[in-house]
Write a structure and sequence with these properties.
The chain has 14 helices and 17 strands. It has a seven-stranded mixed beta sheet, sandwiched between helices. It is α/β, with parallel strands linked by helices. It has helices at about 5-10, 40-50, 60-80, 95-110, 130-135, 155-160, 185-190, 210-215, 240-245, 280-295, 300-315, 345-355, 370-375, 390-405, and strands at about 25, 90, 115-120, 140-145, 145, 150-155, 165-170, 195-200, 220-225, 235-240, 255-260, 265, 320-325, 335-340, 360, 360-365, 380-385.
């Protein structure tokens, strides 16, 4: 059954907004962050209005309600990602989740002579922690290149790189190119070589149903805010045996069993890694977001997004001076269209588009190695999600044509 896009749009109050210049907002920056449905806003507001309290501490009514809501959200989110709550560690987002693997697993298990494999597609969050670890521990970091003709990973180079690796870190879906990597093949290849696998699913989770247990990756990093959830929360999904190999990262309250002047003993499982006051409101909001998403068939969601992005990219290719990076027309593309004009600087183009009401991303997208591989310093990026319409895409193409004709 086709998605009712107008009904979906009605769930998002911000989509009714007009900008200060009177233009209707057209939000095409979903790869940076998605908008939030009313149910998420209401769930977080209800917590603050009705039972705001700290979780896992006091025994009064509000504290019990807050603790229950926090753990109910964990169960909802874990179920959505096809795993059990004991494999889910709350973090501030995908960036902290990746750093958690770097600090709590890699520093406990890797040293000089070990190899970590990355790709040129990675977000800086999946590059910089490993570079720092390399400086600190003498670990070798290898980068798998992309084929700039097909905008895909060089799988032959990957097979060579993982041969003696201890950890393979790969992005599920590129935030710049919209390319979905063959993660199933990468996981199988890496495990055959004896390496653990960390997937950055920040871009993948909003576009398909990530099933952690079926995938078989050792670690998966996810952000809530790109999939209708609030900012400031995400998670690391970790296999039980991998979690057992992790040492404490941030330490303080809750992560301990006991503390004395002689030392401390730590909790097991996810409790070892969730110190301090939990992200209670954010977890509740994320739980509401996955409940909202769960009503849709994510294959239908993907098809809708891909249809809009494919049409948009095809029309943009007809505009003189526009170059597109990636293949948004591919069936597995995630709805990101990165582009440049040959004579209008990317920042200027973004500001001109904003004057028309169109919100797009500009810059290196925290993916400078990929920019270097593409031979450009930055791109503009229009990224689509569940609530975007073909009418918005048509208006965008028409306005972009107008801008190019006037300013190129």
């Amino acid at each position: 059954m086709a998605l009712d896009i107008e009904a979906i749009r009605a769930d998002f109050p911000i989509l009714k907004r007009r900008l200060p210049n009177g233009k209707q907002l057209v939000y095409f920056d979903n790869a940076a962050t998605s908008q939030k449905p009313q149910c998420v806003i209401d769930a977080m507001t209800h917590y603050y209005e009705e039972y705001n309290s700290n979780a896992h501490r006091s025994n009064h009514t509000l504290a019990d309600e807050a603790t229950t809501a926090l753990e109910n959200a964990r169960a909802l989110i874990a179920t959505y990602f096809g795993t059990s709550p004991d494999r889910l560690i709350y973090t501030s987002g995908a960036t902290e989740a990746i750093n958690l693997v770097a600090y709590a697993w890699a520093r406990e298990n890797l040293g000089e002579g070990d190899v970590i494999v990355l790709t040129e597609m990675e977000h800086h969050a999946d590059i910089v922690p490993w570079q720092q670890l390399s400086i600190e521990r003498g670990i070798e970091v290898r980068y798998v290149p992309i084929d700039i003709e097909s905008f895909t990973l060089d799988m032959d180079a990957l097979e060579v790189a993982v041969a003696d690796a201890s950890l393979v870190c790969v992005v599920h879906t590129s935030n710049v190119l919209g390319v979905r990597n063959p993660i199933e093949d990468i996981i199988e290849m890496s495990h055959a070589a004896g390496a653990r696998v960390l997937l950055d699913c920040a871009q993948g989770a909003p576009h398909e149903r990530v099933n952690f247990d079926q995938l078989g990756a050792d670690f998966v990093a996810i952000s809530a805010h790109k999939m209708a959830g609030p900012t400031g929360i995400g998670c690391l999904l970790a296999k039980s045996d991998a979690m057992e190999q992790m040492g404490p990262f941030l330490t303080g309250g809750l992560v301990i069993k006991s503390v004395s002047t002689e030392g401390s003993t730590f909790q097991e499982g996810h409790a070892r890694f969730e110190t301090g006051t939990p992200r209670i409101a954010e977890a509740i909001g994320w739980g509401a977001a996955v409940e909202w998403l769960d009503q849709f068939d994510m294959r239908e969601v993907h098809e809708h997004i891909n249809d809009v992005a494919s049409w948009t990219a095809a029309q943009m290719r007809e505009i003189p001076g526009i170059s597109i990076y990636g293949e948004p027309e591919r069936e597995d593309s995630s709805g990101a269209v990165s582009f440049l004009h040959e004579s209008i600087q990317s920042l200027d183009l973004a500001l001109l588009l904003d004057e028309g009401g169109f919100a797009v991303r500009t810059g290196h997208h925290c993916a400078q190695p990929l920019m270097d591989a593409l031979g450009v310093p930055s791109t503009n990026r229009a990224s689509f999600w569940i609530y975007n319409t073909m009418d918005e895409a048509e208006a965008f193409v028409e306005y972009l044509q107008h801008v190019v004709e006037r300013f190129s």
